[in-house]
Amino acid sequence: MQPTMQPTCLQCGQPIKIIPGHRRRCYCNKQCKQMAYRRRQGQQARPTKQETTMDERVLRERLGGG
Q1: How many separate domains does the chain show?
Q2: Bridge-partner residues for 8, per DSSP?
Q3: Is 66 inside any structural domain?
Q4: Residue 65 lies in a domain
Q5: Does residue 4 fall inside a structural domain?
Q6: 1-46 tens-digit pLDDT
Q7: What pLDDT shows up at residue 44?
Q8: Please, which residues bridge with residue 15 across strands?
Q9: What is the DSSP string of 12-66?
Q10: For residue 11, what is the DSSP state?
Q11: Phi, psi torsion values for 47, nearest 5 degrees
């Protein structure tokens, strides 16, 4: 007998859980699936909360809003 190959996520390389009776999965979770889609479309990931807060602060300083 040959050892069964554990499928891995195309985005992050983590092992994918095999669910009997379901079609074969390519990604380990929805986040990896979305990141792969955005990469294929040439889109950037959304900014983090910290990046957004920093941008708002810089914008307020430039506009003189304090």
Answers
A1: 1
A2: 15
A3: no
A4: no
A5: yes
A6: 556 688 999 999 999 999 999 999 999 999 999 989 988 888 766 6
A7: 66
A8: 8
A9: T--B----TTSPPPSSSSHHHHHHHHHHHHTPPPPPPHHHHHHHHHHHHHHHT--
A10: T
A11: -70, 150
The residue type at 15: P
Closest CA relative to residue 18, chosen from 33, 26, 10: 26
Cβ(12)–Cβ(28) below 8 Å: yes
pTM of this structure? 0.55
Task: Count the residues in the chain.
Answer: 66
**Domain annotation covers residue 3:** yes
Helix, strand, or coil (residue 10): coil
Distances (CA, A) of 9 to 5, 19, 61: 13, 15, 43
Contact residues for 35 (Cβ-Cβ < 8 A; gap 6+): 11, 45
CB 19 within 8 A of CB 28: no
